[in-house]
Amino acid sequence: MSQSIQDSTLHDRHTASDGSAVAARPTRSERKRAESAPVYRLASTIHKWGGLIGAVWLAVLGLTGFFLNNNGLRVLQQATAPRWLTSEQLYQNAGRYVVHLLQIDPNDAAKQIGGGPRGLWRSSDGGMTWSQTNFEGGATPQIFAIEPDPALGWGRLWIASDKGLYVSSNKGETARAAGLAGERVTALVQGASSAEMYGVVDKSKVVRFDPDMATNVETLELAPLPEEARQMEVRLHSFVRSLHFGHGLFDVATSRLINDTGGLAMCILALTGLLHWGFGKWWRIRAAAGARSVSPEAKRSILAWLYRTPPRRQAF
Description:
Blueprint: H1 2-11, H2 28-69, H3 74-78, H4 88-93, E1 101-104, E2 112-116, E3 119-123, E4 131-132, E5 134-135, E6 143-149, E7 153-161, E8 164-168, E9 174-179, E10 185-190, E11 197-201, E12 205-210, E13 213-220, H5 236-244, H6 252-288, H7 296-307
Parallel strand pairs: 5-9
Antiparallel strand pairs: 1-2, 2-3, 3-4, 6-7, 7-8, 8-9, 10-11, 11-12, 12-13
Helix pairs in contact: 2-6
């Protein structure tokens, strides 16, 4: 076997005129690797930039997923995005989502009041101009319902918000807290008599109160529907949608915790990956330019901070 290896080596080696050996001819496998090198480099470049683009988008999806899972946050509803970040279509349609609710005074159609997640406004000229309602304490609640008083009508307007129940006695110019402080009141309706109104807290709990004593709130215990009165099968579309938003397998609190953790983990994973690549790229560029390189200890400290692991000695 050693003789065959020697013969093969001699066959691949050229001899110069002075008898000295020159470099061996490339083997077949080496020629194939050389031919495929451009394809490999192209694939490597596509893979690298595809990974970086995917990491950026993964960070966006993780962060936006966390916010969408908590879309009741006031800042999401009332803060505005920079103009340069919004598309022209979104910018042109932005005004359509400000007012979700509208009430018109039956005795004077020029007086109107409108509200939504961004606040409450009033108009005295049929909607030509609008002024924002001044809430007690400078509050800026999200508005979920506006209901005239069952006895006084527009003389007393009831307002359901994410900060509780408010009431206005001057047709929307000002509003003061009336009850259910800190509760997310999502619906209001007049009762069977002028001495009662009903509300819904957080889309789950029904309450009843007397408009003249709104601080005295009675929670109504509602029995669940019998099985024969409700649909027992869940559509596949509903299940997939709930699973996508993290609500499909567990109770609300557990699902929200899992979804929030997953969203933030995706964002952190993508950002730390980008930083790991970015620092390495930056260090190599600086070294190639002859700039003073970052010490190995500093590099280890930076990477250890990114991944929160004890620094390990490694060659850079």
